[in-house]
Give the backbone structure.
Amino acid sequence: MVRKLFPGCKVKATYPEASEWLAQKILERGYADEIVGCCRTDHQTLTPNDTAVCICNNCMAMIDEDAANGDMANIWMLIDDDPAFPLPDYSGLRMGIQDCGRAYDRRDVQDAVRSLMTKMGIEVVELPDAREKSIFCGM
């Protein structure tokens, strides 16, 4: 089994330094064995013995719809399950949360993001169209 990290094209393009830092942490902590490129072009390299490790909800949807991978893992859930992951402290920060429409039915991912925010000291403010009511496309 190979765990392949799909780092998210838009994440990499928008936040190149943070994306590189996170990808290296993912490899160091053993969440993934290798980094692959884009979900649109590289998802066909997955085999039934592979696990797709995703950051992006759109990547998860693309792979879910059209890849031969055996398992799927979400990075936010993996980090949330790792008590030693180095999270920053944002104590006192208050933040509204908007779920991506591509993850309206992924309650486990939504819960992991909220849990991580809480672990970082962020007060989570739920917006009215969150979770299964989300229509936000992610842009």
Summary: The chain has a mean pLDDT of 86. The helical segments are 9-14, 16-28, 39-42, 57-66, 75-80, 107-119. Residues 85 and 117 are 13 Å apart (CA to CA). Strands lie at 3-6, 34-35, 51-54, 71-74, 94-97, 123-126.
